[in-house]
Amino acid sequence: MDFTLWDIVRNLLTGLQWTLLLSLVAFVCGSAAGLLLLVARISEQPLLRGAARGYIELFQGTPLLMQLFMVFFGLALFGLDVSAWMAAAIALTLFSSAFLAEIWRGCVESIPRGQWEASGSLALTRFEQLRHVILPQALRIAVAPTVGFSVQVVKGTAVTSIIGFTELTKTGGMLANATFEPFLIYGLVAVGYFILCYPLSLSARYLERRLHAPA
Amino acid sequence: MAYQFDFAPVLAQGDLLFKGALFTLQLTLIGTVLGVAIGVVGAVTRAWRLRPFDALFGLYVELIRNTPFIVQLFFIFFGLPALGVRLTEWQAAVLAMVINLGAYSTEIIRAGIQAVPKGQLEAAAALAMSRFEAFRYVVLQPALAKVWPALSSQIVIVMLGSAVCSQIATEELSFAANFIQSRNFRAFETYLLTTLLYLLMAIVVRQLLAWIGQRLLMGRR
Amino acid sequence: MPLLRVSALHKYYGDNHVLKGVDLSIEEGEVVAIIGRSGSGKSTLLRTLNGLESISDGVIEVDGEYLDAARADLRALRQKVGMVFQQFNLFPHLTVGENVMLAPQVVKKAGKAEARYLAEQMLARVGLSDKVDAYPDRLSGGQQQRVAIARALAMSPKVLLCDEITSALDPELVNEVLSVVRQLAREGMTLIMVTHEMRFAREVGDKLVFMHQGKVHEVGHPREVFAAPQTAELANFIGAVAGG
Q: Where is each ABC transmembrane type-1 domain found (chain B) (predicted)?
């Protein structure tokens, strides 16, 4: 079977769409889970704090590939027949939540203690302090590293090709086998990721610079 | 929930896991030494704006940081033979890790070099040191010390990322896990233990790097 | 034959004409104080003398080393011209002893034992023999500056440039540094200091150079110049410093 260059590009673009979709799902769900995790991580309950810490340590200290396998084979133990897509979305969400929570914790901790003390002295509860005083300030600092991390999420989706999710890398692998042109195909695959990631990297750098620019 | 966990068949293959873990550590060691070496050269080139190499390193850094490691690995292992460059599995794995870490450490170390106060360079110049001597004796160590935590994190990330090298049959830890679970059909137990082994390695390597940083870079004995 | 001669020195930063034809001649063993308002070009002048600032036109000669806009053997020049900075600029990752030993070892290829011996001697000169193995951040500002002086002396320079070396110090630490400089002057070291310490300049200096708008505006013996300034600008400056 003969592939024209257009056939190859068209197939890769389909794969790219799945990469994009998985990235979005993982980033959005990961952010939501990460926010909960953040609240737990900076809670005053030692048990909750410890659990969040352990969770973050686990996901930052193990390969994403192993996390994928654990979800894929772990859910199967419960008799659930998980598709590659489900496993990929769940694992990447868990992975993203751990990293985002840790990034955001750094931002929260960079808010001066006086802000906690001042809002506490106004009789705000801890949740109200976070909601009205701390998080709005931390958010400003958090934007740049959060956008920066989105690059890691997009790149992370490539690992899901290993459990058979047909995103960009997997599509590339199948095309490379069919066309015997791995140099061209993997080159194009790399270009595809670059097109997704580079604008994100640039924005992260721009945001970072703007934040540090004298007001 | 009738599933009965059984770790015995995995533990029976413990020596395979152990060998795989050692191989992963070996890859990481070589990748770290060569990757950081590239990082130092790249960082100086970028920080000093040595034309035209600074632009080349800039391109290299952006290309690597904005594409997934597994694609870089596949490109090296499956793609390069088209150019007549045929590498064994472990050579490809090491090369991919070196190139990957080289790009990240270029940026990390550059930040360290640029954080060294200008007065340090002036003091070195006033003592008649050349630019290179000033870099070697005055700039390098404080710059590395400053970014060592960031560099250490990146080294651990690269080690964990090397798990995908199993896909080109590099016989590291995740390859051993795949092999074991294909024999005993205890996938969950196998990957659980392997995951914990990676976690242990990450913790140990992080501690080791912190210790090395203290000894070699912080100067305090 | 003067030890150091500056002729028709010009320096531009872009369109900004910072030094507008400086002529200056300094004999061996002379202690020279350069004074002037900020922006008068005094620090720039000092920094051209060891090539930290390039020059746009003119000539600098130090003990046979020759420097102009086109060519300069900075390595040779800087071995003859030492410098001490306002901010000390000690190397934080090296001990006090290693700070002093570094340049003799790297630039002059001295052996370790030789460099160590030299460092001990230099540190004794500034009264810090007991700090050889301490790190700079364990020292007071005054002690750090004295180490910086020892570090410069270890290269046996012909001239020592001092760029506002007491300006970053707490008032109670100024004297320990000045007394080291006074001792150097007594031993015959050629010193060129940019300074705000007028009393010290008058007491120790052999020559006072008043910089104004990028030129040497007035030169003379400190006591005479202070007693009877020849120009209104210097009179103003002295009045402002004394009054302030």
A: 21-209
Complex ipTM: 0.92
Please give the residue range of the domain that contains residue A19. 5-210
**pLDDT for C244 beyond 50:** no
Which domains does chain B show, CATH number per domain? 9-217 (1.10.3720.10)
Structure tokens at A90: 């769940």
All domains of chain C in start order, with CATH: 4-243 (3.40.50.300)
What is the mean pLDDT of the segment spanning A50-76? 95
- Mean pLDDT on B167-194: 92
> Does the N-terminal peptide bond of residue B52 adopt cis geometry, omega within 30 degrees of 0?
yes
Helix (H, G, I), strand (E, B) or coil at C163: strand
pLDDT tens string C40-99: 999 999 999 999 999 999 999 999 888 888 877 889 999 999 999 999 999 999 999 999
Residue type, C140: S
Check if B121 contacts C (Cβ < 8 Å): no
Query: CATH no. for residue A104?
Result: 1.10.3720.10
pLDDT computed for residue B221 by the predictor: 46
A215 in any annotated domain: no
Please, do chains C and A touch (3+ CB pairs < 8 Å)?
Answer: no
**If residue A22 lies in a helix (H) or strand (E), which one and from where to where?**
helix A5-41
Burial of A49 (0-12, 13-18, 19+ CB in 10 A): middle
Quick one: closest CA in C to B130, which residue? C75
Backbone angles phi, psi at C62, to 5 degrees: -130, 110
Cβ <8 Å between A161 and B70: yes
Q: Are the C-beta atoms of B107 and B147 separated by less than 8 Å?
A: no
